[in-house]
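Objective 1b of the project was to move from sequence-level analysis to a structural picture of ligand recognition. The entry below was assembled by the postdoctoral researcher (A.K.) and checked by the PI before modelling. It contains the amino acid sequence of the target and the SMILES of the bound compound, pyridoxal-5'-phosphate.
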Amino acid sequence: MYKLDQNETPLFDALMEYVNRDTIPFHVPGHKKGLGIDQEFKNYIGENPFKIDVTVFKLVDSLHHPTGPIKKAQELAADAYGSDAAFFSIHGTSGAIQAMILSVVGDGDKIIVPRNVHKSITGGIILSGAVPVYMQPELDKKIGIAHGVSPETVEETLKLHPDAKAVLIINPTYYGVSTDIKKIADIVHSYDIPLIVDEAHGPHLKFNEKLPMSAMEAGADICAQSTHKIIGAMTQASLLHVRSERVDVHRVQQLLNLMQTTSPSYILMASLDCARRQIALEGKELLDNTIDLIKYAREEINKIPGYFSFGEEVLGAPGCYGFDPTKLTITCRDLGIAGSDLDMILANKYHIQMEMSDLYNILAVGSYGDTKESLDALINALKEISNEYLGKGNKKSDILDMPSIPEQILRPRDAFYSSKHAVPLKDSIGMVSGEFLMAYPPGIPILCPGEKITSEILNYVQQLKDKGLFVQGTEDPKVEYIRVVD
Ligand SMILES: Cc1ncc(COP(=O)(O)O)c(C=O)c1O
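Corresponding predicted holo structure:
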């Protein structure tokens, strides 16, 4: 199945050799294997992390110019995921995404992206000077979330913008829903441009047949994955995978060198090396177990009055082609309390911390670190909360149809660098927004920097406020003022 020996962990092994040699350190970091570390911190962390907290030298290789164990570790990652080249990112998927965007578009190039992208994508668009062309994702009004963009939307957008230089999609969403990425890859490639993928929530997809198809399997050209979010790497450690037919692998390396620190953490990189070995060799079994556990939790939660956790029945709805069963989105609209309140009760009273919440939902990210005990604790807490709150509050309002995407007057880059001033929102019709304005739910921008403010948008904001739904993003937390371009 693999071409290389996935038992190997070349970077971790090189660090172990450094430790075993009992090397005397005259290199940074200045704590010198932990001797110079604050005692209380060391008492808690223990001594071992400091022994492998080293810097660039021959034995442990260089992230910017890998020729030894880092090169080998990245080759093993590419082999495990079926890419032509893999790169370690110690700036999370945010850093990987920015390098990914910069490697396919430049100043003035069009890039087609979903409207509800993560802010690192907007960051990449600002840095590159590209012109975004937005696609509206499919909305699920009952749950109040956005799903994927449909292949039809991608096709229509490309017909209108055949000069686009790249298309970006999210696979899967935060809530575990994926679109028909294979079909989208074929459509995008018929224009001979790269499909680039934000796979922050999909580093596990390739390793279990019960999960949706991964970007690399679908034929995408680049994808960035948060190895640290879903599988066993440490926070900040992500992978960037490249297929070399439409993307220049050397340029990707150059861009990562431009963006990443020259002092990457070897602890983080070693965690990537070992997380790759773990998922390559044990992923299927570990994920089978996770899927069973979360399935059990979903079934139990769906028996408790006031909650609903969607599963595979979502498939077939627009933008829903695959479902990641390790995700547990718990909708509490019928309970009559906001998801954000439920989140607070779980955190403060039960010491259970969810991944995120919005007006309608809380989200638990499942992984092979979960246990039956931890899921039972969540189920029992939800039962108690249901007993206490059911029937006492009001069901939250339905989400409203989004206004149309406004005209783009300035590129996000130009809007970002322009001077701006605040005006009352009610007086801003016809002006160019210098800020984002987001509707929650479903967490989709109504306005992006550089776009023209319309009366339709102002009416929508008023309706959101009247219905007690959230509108956010402006510097003014009450969204009475908006910063516009001078
Ligand atoms: C969809 C999506 N893309 C990208 C990112 C950025 O990932 P990271 O936190 O690894 O930088 C996130 C983070 O939450 C995300 O949800």
